[in-house]
Design goal:
Order of helices and strands of chain A: HHHHHH
Number of strands of chain B: 17
Mean pLDDT of chain A: 89
Number of helices of chain B: 10
Helix content of chain B: 10-25%
Shape of chain A: elongated
Radius of gyration of chain A: 18 Å
Largest interface: A-B, 46 and 49 residues
Structural class of chain B: alpha/beta
Strand content of chain B: 15-25%
Oligomer: heterodimer
Largest sheet of chain A: none
Amino acid sequence: MPFLPSAFLAASAQGSGDLPGFIASFADTLLPAGAFASGAAVGAQGRLADRAATDPGFADILRRAAAAIDDRCRQMNGRSFRASPPAVRDKLFHELSQIPDTELLGWFFQAARAEVFFHYYGQPGMGATVGLGEAPQPEGFEDIQDPWRAA
Amino acid sequence: MSASVIIIGSGAGGAAAAWSLARRQVHCTVLEAGPHYDYLTDYRLLRPDWEKTGFPAKVPTEGRQTFDTLQALEDKWSDLRSWNKLRGLKVRGDRRSSSGGYKHVVGVGGTTLYFTGEYHRMNRRAMALETDYGVGADWPLDYDTLEPYYLEAERLVGTSGPGGDARRPRSADYPLPPLPSALASLTLRAGHERLGLSFPPNSLAVLSEPYDDRPNCNFCGNCNRGCPRGDKGTADVTYLRHAVQSGYCTILTGQEVKRLEHGPDGRVQRAIVAGPDGSLAAVVGDVFVLAAGAIESPRLLLNSEMATATGNVGRNLMETLAWTSIGLHPDPIGSHRGHPSDSICWDFNDPDAIDGIPGGFRMSPGTAEANLVGPINYAARVVGGWGEDHRQRMKELFGRALALSAFGENLPNPGSFVDLDPEARDAHGFPKARINSFLPDMELQRLRQMRNVVRQVLAASGVAEIIEESGTYDEFGSSHVFGTCRMGREEEGALVGDTCQSFEHSNLVIADASVFPSTGGGESPSLTISALAIRAMEALISRN
């Protein structure tokens, strides 16, 4: 098992040395730049920082998770998460996604991903990622019996 | 009639009562605890961040009521747990959850501001459950007595519907034709028909054509977030607009009634009201119409020590028995479009529709009410993942979630009631309403049947994989609540008679879903609440 349950507790409560950088990289790994802006480019990492600022429990989990993930990345390629190439980050995300959310690291991944998605897809213009306009009104939909146009 | 009438609450019952009085030139004052809603500034469907919030409550409703500990979850019903493919079980504990609270809106128009506009008449056979099936209670009036008032309400609101349902016969057509069914609903209709079932257009307080200076619906699919067009027949743009325009109705906002006081003759003399600044004042009137809903109406009576002679206040709470299954359809059906409940299956609506389990149910599209209409929820609940694969799957899967919901009869039982919380109090020291809810095995057997049929229809509609299911077994369901101030033919077992007049307090009328003796087989209650209120005010005028 790449991530042992003890990895989370063994990780430094002080967290990664560069927590803002870790959070931004996390957001960009979830939502890399392409036809649309990356997660960090629209400030999705701010959602995690905001929650950490108002929720001490989440802040503690975030710091420990960042440290555990950085440690694991260094095992994999000698670099922190932020400095790792996309293929390593992708492999690490795959490992994280396999951890049940009854374990704190698994819970962190699920919760942090949901926060980033929430912020990202609530930004102006992001409806276009799925073929939507800016908002449901005032146009509504007049094509309700036609197949949905692909994004 | 020269009496002044005080109406407490401005939802489906209070608003219809106000209109019914005002059109007869009877002065009334509506006391509403919440504020007015401004359609353009309060509702968010014109904003890019529209999906981030549900209905924009101006008065927070969390914590206004409390819950007693709900029932333990049992292994034998584990197949009725709510779950999501990505998130796992919705309720992680070993007891039924109350985390969803009691869904309601505090504001002018009440919870109609939030509803999808389903406007259903009762199934006439569901109004005599005790006589015909030995369960629940009979209504003290029959369908035919209520029918003219249904018609008045439908015409005032501008109801769109198909007609042709023998369970709820009509003396005249709907004022408007039905809304067109969206492609997702046509897909579900095909699934129903493959099983020999029907899925016709729903009857809706939503305009299919311009009506009464209001525009038609443009199918944005987000009724639950508040309709900024005014095509949805909420109480404020229909009953209350006309009542106020008549000059006979005044609406006072920010007025929360805390207690009613009565004289030795039993007649209510005044309401003690907390105003916007928190100060308490007395409001006097000749007649009081209580329309605060099935949770707050009994609370007010209990806090006022009124209508307590038979101990019936708060008993017989009935809730929403509901199930939703969501799957992915292989075709790009664009299920986020269209009215959320544009079609309905009434084939299981009769009280004897399920062998050995009294009480029926109905089914309607559930995708929008499950909040799968925008990218935030698709990302979190349907797609998951990360990176380029996530982006590609968002494009591919958006609009393919197809949900079907079932809503069923919920029979009263001794474990479901509203009482006063012995500890929790509001800002003025009045005890809060405490919700006690229990679902006996018969209810869960009905729920399981509902679940089974929903799954069968989805499969017949082309859904190969279910990705999420939710029901009211593991979470209290409060879309509709009923029954805590039951109407009946006589005082034993009831608080009010067939015209909603209190047996114990002659100038008190109750005009909300608390008077329902039974829920019906999944019918949405707003129309029946309004029809009862209109009839109650006609009777009130006749008495005076």
